[in-house]
Sequence to fold (77 residues):
Amino acid sequence: MNNEYRNEIMKTSLEARINEVTEYQVNIDNFKLAIEKIGNDADLQDFKSNLKELLASSIAEQRKSQIMLEVIQSQTE
Fold:
């Protein structure tokens, strides 16, 4: 296996995972703030429920991305 090529792929994968984890975090922060802002507004409870589902999904997906990031990091050290 070509080590230089492998290293380039790992570097690209590492950068992509870092970006992915960061993007999930931005969404998580935004969902939490929006949920707080909606509070008990009766007209927005369906929207709030959707945001809660998106929040839970984003947290789970971010954790998966973090695991893959850790795996890639362990191979590049």
Notes: Helices lie at 3-38, 45-76. Residues 3-76 form one domain. Residues 40 and 48 are 9 Å apart (CA to CA). The chain has a mean pLDDT of 96.
